[in-house]
Amino acid sequence: MIIIESAYWYLTFKCNLSCRHCLLNSSPSRDDTRDLTFEEKARLIEEFKNVGITSLRLTGGEPLFKQDTDLILRMIYENGISYFLETNGTILSKKTLESLIDTSDLIDNICISLDGPDKPSHESIRGKNTFHVTLKNIERLSSHGLPVQISTTVHAGNYKRVKDIVNLAEHLSAKSVYFRFLSDWGRAKENDMGSQMDVPLYIKIIRDISALSKKKRENLSIYLGSPPGIIPNNILVNIEKLCYGCDFPVIGVLPDGRISFCGLASYYTTMVLGNFRKERIKDIWENDDTVQRLRNFGSDDLEGVCGMCIFRHQCRGSCRIDAYALFNSFLGPYPLCEKFYQEGKFPKSHLE
User: What does residue 110 show for φ and ψ, rounded to 5 degrees?
Assistant: First the structure.
C-alpha cells in the first residue's frame, strides 16, 4: 500500500471576491452546485485518514465561503489530521473562529492574503472594502494566539512595499510573512500582469526580501516562495526559509470530488485522474498510469536548466504544472529558472 501523507483540498472554487490575479478565476458567480455535500465531505475525511494522510491544505476559492466549513474543521481535527487554511481574510464568522480556537493545536498555519500595506494597494487587487476587514480578522485570530501567516503575491504594482508589509505584519502579531511571485495563470494572465515582471525586477525583489530576512525579528519569520537556483549564494544565506513548491506528485481533491494534482492541473483534462464520488483515492493513487509515471520520475531526468542545477534534488524543479504549461512536459524546466538561464542571469556557481 502506498501511503499518502498530505493533500490539497479545494473546498470550493466559489469566492466572495474576484481578485485581479486569481489563478483559478474564482468569483461570486462560480457555479458551486456540484460541490461535495457535507455527507460526502465527511466520508472524504474518513478516507483521508484511511490512506495515511496526516496533513491537509484547505484552499479554494474561498473555503470559508462554505457554510459547513466550521464543522469540517472540527471533523478534520477529530480524525487527528493537521491542516493549513488559506483564506482571503474577509469572512470569519463567530462559529468558524470558535472552531479554529478549539482545533488550534493541529493548525499548521492560517494563511491570509494581504497584497499591500494600505487600502489603495491591497484593494487595487482584491476589490473595494476588503483591506480593513482583513486587518480586523487578522487581529481577531492573532489575539487568540492562532498562527497567522500573511501571504503576499509580489507583482510590479506592490514590490516597493515589501518592507511596509513586513512592518504591518509585526504590528498585527502575525507569525510569518510569505512572499510569493505572481503566477501567470487565470485572471493574472487575462490582465497581462505577468508581462510586467522581468528578470531585473525579480532580482531586485529577491534582494529586498533577503535584506528584510537578514534582520532577524523575534516573533516574525519571513518566507520566500522561490527556487533556490536563481538566488546567488551571498543572498541565499540571508533568506530565512525558501518554499520551493509542492512535493510533486501531490494529491488534490477538487470541489466536485475530482482527483487531480492541484487546482492548476485541473485545467488539463488529462490530469484529472478520477472522481472520489465513483472511486477510492487509494485505488486511483496506486493504479493510475499517470500517477505511477510521475511518482517514479527522478530529479536527474529534469530538462533544461533544472537538469543542470545543483539544487535539483532539493527543489525537484519547483512547480511541475508551470513547467508542463509552457513546455508540454512534466520534465521541462521551471519557467522562471529557464528565463534567468536564457538571459544569462542564472548563477554559474549553481550549474554542474
Answer: -110, 105
Q: How far apart are CA 118 and CA 3, in angstroms?
A: 44
SS3 call for 66: coil
Who's near 37: CB < 8 A, 6+ residues apart? Answer: none
C-alpha cell at 19: 481578485
DSSP letters spanning 182-212? PP-SHHHHHTT-GGG--HHHHHHHHHHHHHH
Residue 176 scores a pLDDT above 80: yes
Please tell me the distance from the alpha carbon of residue 22 to that of residue 3, in angstroms, as a whole number: 32
d(CA 22, CA 26): 7
Per-residue pLDDT tens digits for 90-99 = 999 999 999 9
Give the residue carrying C-alpha cell 494581504: 114
* Residues in CB range of 128: below 8 A, 6 or more apart: none
298 or 341, which is more confident: 341
Backbone angles phi, psi at 230, to 5 degrees: -85, -5
| 170 vs 218: CA distance, rounded Å | 10
Average pLDDT of the residues in 334-350: 97
Report angle CA 152, 157, 160 to the nearest 5 degrees.
75
Mean pLDDT of 100-106: 98
Separation between Cα atoms, residue 162 and residue 115, nearest integer Å: 9
Q: What share of the chain is helix, strand, coil (3-state, %, to 5)?
A: 45, 15, 40
Q: Where are the alpha helices (DSSP H) in 51-130?
A: 69-78, 94-102, 119-126
Going by DSSP bridges, is the β-strand pair 251-253/258-260 parallel, antiparallel, or unpaired? antiparallel
